[in-house]
Amino acid sequence: MTHDAQLAATRAAVLDRIAGAASRAGRDPGVVEIVAVTKTVAAERIRAAAAAGFASFGENRVQERQAKATDLADLAGPDPVKWHLVGPLQSNKARRAIELFDVIQTVDSLDLAGRLDRIVGAGGADGGARSEPRRVRVLLQANVDDDPAKSGFDPEALARDLGAILDLPNLAVEGLMTVGRQVDSPEAARPTFSALRHLSERLRAREPRLGPALSMGMTDDFDVAVEEGATIVRIGRAIFGARPHGG
Ligand SMILES: *Cc1c(COP(=O)(O)O)cnc(C)c1O
């Protein structure tokens, strides 16, 4: 198979697994967005993945997205692919992140939310091709496992700060995101995913302005995440193969 045909087959296989998981949970598989995570993946292969039908891509570092942006400028055509930031965002890179990404999945403090809001509000970020002012699409990252190794809002802090974040006029808060703990079986990740869903239900009962998106699940456990309600899965290795060590 050619590279492109292989990526199309991979996409079909991933969609199949999502459909299976959705059907086990009585959910509509059509609402699950695949974000193809391209850290360490070269621009050429990203272009091939877009040609194979992947429409959303994720990077975990602003610099890496920036390094590939010129090479991938052609993907910003009439039906542009979407870029999601899925790694931690330092506040000094907030402006670049707004310019380079369509969705920032990793808002983990009221401070960062406020900064993003102010940058957009001041018209200070060059939206490139997007000349219209826009609200920044964000997800709030929650650390539902209380894992010191992971960033994200502690659920109590999120409950406390949520109203203030939702009041920010230039953010569209579409939902929640979590990065699960390292576990040795997909089943072991389930409590994390169900905890994020329950957190979302609890917060939305009080603050319906919080969007319903749930970004959870990666290569090893996205089936379980879909069973537990994921609307966005972030998949790297199952699409592009193993990353170089440490990637
Ligand atoms: C790398 C990464 C992924 C994708 O991980 P895979 O195991 O390769 O599917 C998902 N989410 C985040 C935040 C990542 O950094």
Question: How would you sum up this structure in a few lines?
Answer:
This protein has 247 residues and is of the alpha/beta class. Helices cover 39% and strands 15% of the residues.
What can you see in these coordinates?
With 247 residues, the chain is an alpha/beta fold. Helix content is 39%, strand content 15%. It has helices at residues 3-24, 43-51, 62-69, 94-100, 110-121, 155-166, 190-206, 222-227, 237-240; strands spanning 33-37, 56-59, 82-85, 103-107, 136-141, 171-177, 213-215, 232-235. It has an eight-stranded parallel sheet with strand order 7-6-5-4-3-2-1-8. Strand 1 (33-37), helix 2 and strand 2 form a beta-alpha-beta unit. It starts with a helix and ends in a 7-residue tail after the last helix. The mean pLDDT is 93. The structure holds pyridoxal-5'-phosphate (PLP). Pyridoxal-5'-phosphate is lined by residues 37, 39, 60, 86-87, 179, 218-219, 234-238.
